[in-house]
Design goal:
Layout (H helix, E strand, L loop, with lengths): L11 H4 L1 H6 L18 H11 L1 H10 L1 H6 L5 H4 L5 H9 L5 H6 L11 H11 L7 H30 L8 H4 L2 H6 L5 H16 L3 H14 L4 H14 L3 H24 L1 H13 L10 H4 L6 H25 L6 H15 L12 H7 L3 H24 L9 H27 L41
Length: 468
């Protein structure tokens, strides 16, 4: 059988039952003789980037009550429209401007965010016109909603561009229910977009640019550190550490410069997020909150230790997956497993943290059914946490702690389901499918079917760990 052409786009409606069923409203699944779809991956990436308006619009609709009436407690919990974005603008003094944020001093903005996130949030705050605090919060939220929608579209584009034979996988980003719930709750989409851009750069064999983008992503949120580790693990197995070293060196340099420059002028802005993490106790969404729900809270020191153990467990699990799988797994698969474990064992697993997994789900190519099972668990917990928080003000109307624990277990199950399906896919990694669904040799060589392989493309395994 002839090898497949890299410019052919595969159709999910041929292999995915959910996509096949959903396609009925658009004329049915693609026929077996339709070897070309559209005009190539760019056409599909552009369409999906435009489709992002659907979850972004649904998220704004979810926020409509708070936009009209303000983000006040407990009203924002009853209507499930809480957002950190306007609250941070109000409480952290983001209207003072970027210069005040960078130089520090009395009256300077004090967002408890990682450096780059704090800088971007303050930059947007400087664009807000004068007025009442309620109007300024609405204006700031609108600015962030626009930026979030743009970043979501870019994330979708970069996801499609990273897997050019499978660009329709990016529909898992463009139409994600998780995005519809969480897009404007926090600033996480900034780090998510930078990470997606970094993975695209890696797929195009640009390790230095990958490192620069990952350095920026790490300065926006800590999770991209795990992507650097995932790249190390797959590079170690392939025996090609030079590209990874260039990537890691660039990432460390960018993050170090940001931290150093901001730290010298405003150490509080540079390190507040990390100091806050060290002193924090168990938060919502974390399994370490369950003892608190039962009336016996864990100490903050113990929770810190458990979270650190979670990072170690994530690294160890990623190493086992990357180095012992029969076929070398992709960086997206290793990253998803490690990020999910860190989320699951962290001090808190906020509802918005789920957005970090969305691009990895798409890049891995998980089935829509798996993504929807996980999304359903996230949606149930999303509603439960707001009802529980509202109940702290009005217990007679809120969700009891015991029932919140039930929905927390459901969320944990959904996340474990995602990890399990990713593990199963990576351990049984198939060859690339041709447009008719038949198994053929990889486009990149018989030992490589990962379109995110980048500089590792075509490399044979040099290190494989076997467990007897």
């Amino acid at each position: 059988m002839p090898a497949p052409r890299p410019d052919l786009v595969t159709a999910p409606s041929r292999q995915d039952p959910v996509a096949r069923s959903a396609s009925e409203v658009l004329g049915g699944p693609t026929g077996r003789y339709a070897v070309r779809l559209g005009r190539g991956w760019r056409w599909y990436a552009a369409v999906l980037a435009a489709v992002c308006v659907v979850p972004a619009g649904l998220n704004i609709l979810l926020q409509s009550h708070c936009i009209d009436s303000g983000w006040s407690t407990p009203d924002q919990f009853w209507h499930a429209c809480f957002s950190d974005v306007p609250a941070t603008y109000r409480d952290a003094g983001l209207g003072e401007g970027v210069l005040s944020f960078v130089t520090g001093g009395f009256g300077a903005p004090h967002p408890t965010q990682p450096p780059l996130t704090g800088f971007v949030m303050t930059l947007l705050g400087s664009l807000v016109p004068s007025g009442s605090i309620e109007d300024r919060m609405r204006f700031y939220f609108a600015l962030w909603a626009v930026l979030g929608a743009v970043l979501l579209a870019l994330t979708t584009w970069w996801t499609a561009a990273s897997v050019r034979r499978f660009p329709l996988r990016a529909a898992l980003v463009a139409l994600s229910p998780v995005v519809a719930l969480t897009l404007t709750i926090s600033a996480d989409i900034l780090g998510v977009a930078l990470t997606a851009a970094a993975l695209y750069a890696w797929s195009r064999e640009k390790p230095v640019l990958t490192g620069v983008l990952l350095g920026l992503a790490i300065s926006a949120r800590t999770y991209p550190v795990l992507v650097v580790v995932a790249l190390l693990l797959v590079s170690l197995r392939a025996g090609r550490l030079v590209p990874w070293a260039r990537c890691a060196g660039s990432a460390a340099a960018v993050f170090g410069v940001i931290l150093l420059v901001l730290g010298l002028s405003n150490s509080d802005a540079a390190f507040a997020a990390y100091r806050g993490w060290l002193s924090a106790g168990a938060g919502f969404g974390s399994p370490w909150l369950l003892p608190l729900l039962a009336g016996s809270p864990l100490s903050s020191g113990l929770v810190t230790g458990l979270a650190i153990v979670g990072w170690v467990a994530a690294l160890a699990t990623g190493a086992v997956l990357a180095l012992s799988s029969p076929r070398r797994p992709g960086v997206a698969e290793v990253s998803l497993v490690m990020v999910a474990i860190v989320l699951l064992t962290g001090k808190s697993m906020t509802v918005q943290s789920a957005i970090w997994l969305v691009p990895f789900v798409a890049l891995v190519g998980l089935a829509w059914a798996d993504a929807l099972i996980w999304s359903a668990a996230e949606a149930l917990h999303f509603e439960a946490v707001w009802l529980y928080l509202a109940g702290t003000s009005q217990p007679s109307r809120g969700l009891p702690a015991s029932w919140y624990a039930v929905f927390l277990f459901i969320r944990i199950f959904g996340l474990l389901w995602l990890v399990g399906r990713t593990w199963q896919l990576a351990r049984g990694r198939p060859a690339v499918l041709d447009p008719d669904g038949a198994v053929v040799e990889s486009v990149w060589g018989e030992d490589e079917s990962d379109e995110l392989a980048g500089s590792l493309r075509g490399a044979s395994d040099q290190l494989i760990v076997r467990f007897s």
